[in-house]
Specification:
heterotrimer, A mainly alpha, B mainly alpha, C alpha/beta, B: mainly alpha, ABC transporter involved in vitamin B12 uptake, BtuC, two-stranded antiparallel ribbon, C: alpha/beta, six-stranded mixed sheet
């Protein structure tokens, strides 16, 4: 939840001149500076790759959170948008040699259109219906992409065409450029969602998530607000989906449109904190390495171990930490800020 | 073209009977306990594996394994209710959804770890027997599955309408608070409802095991089919779920015939999406706000 | 008191053959406080729900400020300037008091700071200033009613429908609530107040509308209405206990 006290202090801060000396301002900048140094510290390609996935799924979790966390419309179909993004850029690249940097926006728009179509049929309903519908939609997508193989490559999947690696075609031989691109995307999405959360629509989403009847009574157009949430979420998720395709070089419909993929995206938001900006990042930092390392060590011996772990984490998280890991972390962060503020006051 | 329509309808109805049973199981749990179990298809998967392993080790006819698989699945459902579902009965839909989705993923992948991804089949002598009645061919194993599904549905219906326990279950379906005031032990009712839900769905798995591959994610499409059917029929409406199951089976058969062998599900799902977009309350419920 | 701000004409709402509201007509005039009373199940809340678009009425017409709002959605009705509270409170549970009311204030402004300022004033107005940062879920029922009141006021309504906001309050709390209602009225907001308790209605309203079995029994000045035989009968017949307890 948004903390009113924080915003009061924000007013105080903007009024004062010592903005950069305030820990509320310099701590995030310090954090970002540290993040920029990561590729210098983590030179092992496998681990940097893992960090890249953490960032990508953290960002996707934030995008999911707009619909699932703020407006509480449980989507189990975000793989649709992820997959649409991945397929659109890859296909535009294969068929027309269009750069992914341009193609991803087509993917985003395409995802928004599908989101609107989904919204038209489900936003009049509540609770479980939306979740079932999103699963059904992702199934339909999976089957359609398998069926129309002439266009989509069918069940065998598609490989991103190789070209010596260039920024213009979003292709690199090292994992370091990906790291910085993903990080930039993450920061932009954080800033965007933070802004949305402090705007009218952000308040409206949260209100809808709490009580739709009461939200209508104060003039909120529920369907419109939900469409906007799903649209923004779909667009961002599609962009990240095209990043994913450019990163792994190979996509196929079964895993791209699977409910597993959707759950992976939602899971980081749930573990981290529903309806919070930084929650999904925390969730991704915790969940992704556990799952990936399980896969690395047990993948050959016990296929499925990583997903079984996902299931287990989901069950435990929803019962034990329904508000997410962000709550205790926020408390610590607040303590740190208070201590820093006190010490700077003394000076 | 038109002469194959009876064939399509019969094939659709036969598998539709199984869908109907699976859907009734889901609808029962939703109606009585007010929880949508996204791991419902996995009950079918567990039922199939139970049958498969008993058949492997004893060689008995798969139908006989029902004697063991029904109690085993009943217990599974009841224990899940006691230790897991009960925690989220009054929680938000979001919590319920993710708890049961977590369970779904866990069960699928535990099955994958335990039994591998291999597609397994059960061989029985009557597998290949086909009857031809007036130009309509009927695979005997599918007919048996259909009859098992119908039989169990009838038994469930008799239980709900003729026994005190069944009536109590219907009462708590109508109003949980009143049921409590009437002295009905809702905890026990919930466990039994979950037990029945798992048992009949597991039995559906057994019924199809003679002509369907057994693999860890076999329950996914059946589960999805059941959610769809249950929404079509109106959540918690058992008759609606039953009829919806039959209809989905027929829709799938038409899809296989006219769109392509891999497109049966596709057509069924698209029909579902279109229908619900037009009539969001479901087909069999009156429009109540 | 000449121009009606709200006109209800021949309103009916039937549920499966039950006539919850039956051919009901009444006007609400600018600036007045109209009390609506009637025994349980006489159709008070149903009437509210039909006016505000939560129910689709079976027949009839509702005019607000001369414009038809018949069959419009609740959010549209709210945007036109009709605020409401709920009989069973519906706060946004995980949000603080301030955030709840700020959400309401957003109907009339796009800017967070402005919305927050409006909200702060309304929260103070209803006497919740000391709980402004409390999460709504943890408020007492009475404070939740105050919160809903503030949230509705923050939308800057021209007409406010209050659904049994005083049920369950003790004598002192009722007095406080009455004062609040009078202050809102003094601000120029027209009020329709549904109450079960007659005493509250007579002391607050300029006019009273009495419902029974979904139809209008009578309407008029509080003192006149209270002495009407059919009103007494309706209450003696159905809500005898309430009547005696509150006289």
């Amino acid at each position: 939840m948004k903390n009113v006290k924080t915003s009061r202090q924000e007013i105080k801060n903007t009024a004062g001149n010592a903005m950069i000396l305030n820990p509320r301002n310099y701590l995030p900048i310090l954090g970002l500076a540290l993040a920029l140094l990561v590729p210098l510290i983590v030179t092992n390609s496998y681990y940097l790759g893992l960090i890249n996935l953490v960032i990508l799924f953290g960002a996707a979790g934030i995008a999911w959170n707009i619909v699932g966390g703020y407006a509480r419309q449980v989507s189990l179909g975000h793989s649709i948008f992820f997959g649409i993004g991945a397929y659109t850029t890859t296909l535009l690249q294969i068929k027309f040699n269009i750069s992914p940097w341009i193609g991803m926006f087509f993917g985003g728009v395409f995802a928004v259109l599908i989101g609107i179509l989904m919204g038209m049929s489900v936003f009049r309903m509540k609770g479980h219906y939306f979740a079932v519908f999103t699963i059904a939609y992702s199934y339909v997508m999976m089957l359609l992409f398998q069926k129309f193989r002439g266009l989509t490559g069918g069940a065998e999947g598609l490989s991103v065409p190789f070209n010596d690696g260039s920024l213009a075609m979003f292709q690199f031989s090292s994992k370091v450029p990906y790291y910085y691109i993903f990080l930039l995307a993450l920061v932009l999405i954080i800033l965007l969602v933070q802004r949305l959360g402090k705007s009218r629509i952000g308040y409206y989403w949260t209100a809808i998530g709490q009580d739709e009847q009461a939200a209508m009574a104060i003039g909120i157009n529920i369907a419109m607000a939900k469409h906007l949430a799903l649209g923004i979420s779909a667009f961002l998720t599609a962009i990240l989906g095209s990043f994913y395709a450019q990163y792994v070089y190979f996509i196929e419909p079964f895993s791209m449109f699977s409910t597993h993929m959707s759950v992976e995206i939602a899971l980081v938001a749930i573990v981290g904190g529903l309806g919070t900006v930084m929650g999904p990042v925390v969730g991704a930092i915790v969940v992704k390495p556990i799952a990936e390392l399980t896969n690395m060590f047990l993948g050959n011996v016990l296929p499925g171990a990583n997903y079984a772990l996902y299931g287990l984490i989901l069950i435990v998280a929803i019962i034990v930490i329904p508000n997410g890991l962000i709550v205790p972390i926020n408390r610590l962060y607040q303590k740190l800020i208070n201590r820093l503020e006190r010490s700077s006051d003394r000076n | 073209m038109a002469e194959i329509v009876p064939q399509i309808i019969v094939s659709g109805l036969l598998i539709g009977g199984v869908y109907a049973l699976v859907s009734v199981g889901l609808s029962l749990l939703f109606g009585v306990v007010d929880i949508v179990n996204f791991a419902h298809g996995e009950f079918l998967m567990l039922g199939m594996y139970t049958t498969y392993w008993i058949w492997v080790f004893s060689g008995v006819d798969p139908l006989i394994t029902l004697i063991i698989s029904i109690p085993v699945m009943f217990l599974t459902g009841a224990l899940l209710m006691k230790y897991l579902f009960k925690r989220v009965i009054d929680a938000s839909p979001l919590t319920q959804i993710f708890l049961t989705v977590g369970l779904q993923i866990l069960l699928q992948n535990v099955a994958l770890m335990a039994f591998s991804a291999n597609y397994r089949t059960i061989q029985v002598v009557y597998n290949e027997i086909v009857w031809n009645i007036g130009g309509v061919t009927i695979q005997i194993s599918r007919l048996i599955a259909f009859f098992i599904a119908i039989l169990l549905s009838i038994i469930l219906w008799l239980f709900l309408t003729r026994t005190d326990m069944g009536k109590a279950m219907k009462a708590s379906q109508l109003d949980r608070e009143t049921a409590k005031l009437m002295g009905i032990n809702t905890d026990k009712i919930f466990m039994i409802a979950a037990g029945i839900s798992a048992a009949i769905t597991g039995a559906a798995g057994t019924a199809i095991s003679t002509f369907f591959y057994v693999f860890p994610t076999v329950g996914v499409s059946f589960g999805l089919m059941a959610y769809i059917t249950v929404i079509l029929g109106g959540l918690g409406n058992l008759k609606g779920a039953f009829v919806g199951g039959l209809l989905i089976g027929v829709a799938e058969a038409f899809g296989v015939q006219y769109v392509g062998a891999d497109s049966g599900l596709l057509l069924a799902f698209i029909i579902f999406i279109v229908l619900l977009t037009i009539k969001p309350q479901g087909l069999f419920s009156k429009g109540v706000a | 008191m000449s121009t009606p701000i709200l006109s209800v004409k021949g309103l009916s709402k039937h549920f499966d053959g039950l006539k919850a509201v039956d051919n009901l007509s009444f006007d609400v005039f600018k600036g007045e406080i109209l009390g609506v009373i009637g025994p349980n199940g006489s159709g008070k809340t149903t009437t509210f729900n039909c006016i505000t678009g939560y129910y689709k009425s079976t027949a009839g017409e509702v005019l607000f400020d001369g414009k038809s709002i018949t069959g419009r959605t609740p959010d549209f009705v709210a945007q036109q300037g009709i605020g409401r509270t709920f009989q069973v409170t519906r706060p946004f549970g995980d949000m603080t008091v301030w955030e709840n009311v700020t959400t309401g204030a957003f109907l009339r402004t796009m800017h967070l700071m402005e919305a927050k300022k409006i909200a702060e004033q309304e929260v103070e107005f209803v006497g919740l200033a000391d709980k402004i940062n409390v999460v709504a879920r943890s408020l007492s029922i009475i404070d939740q009613r105050r919160l809903e009141f503030a949230r509705a006021l923050a939308t800057k309504p021209k007409l406010l429908l209050l659904d049994e906001v005083m049920a369950g309050l003790n004598a002192q709390e009722v007095d406080e609530a009455l004062k609040l209602v009078h202050r809102v009225s003094a601000m120029g907001i027209t009020l329709v107040v549904v109450e079960h308790v007659m005493k509250v209605i007579t002391s607050i309203s300029n006019r009273v509308l009495v419902l029974n079995f979904g139809a209008k029994l009578t309407e008029g000045k509080p003192a006149d209405v209270m002495s009407t035989p059919s009103v007494i009968e309706a209450y003696l017949g159905k809500g005898f206990g309430d009547y005696v307890a509150n006289c």
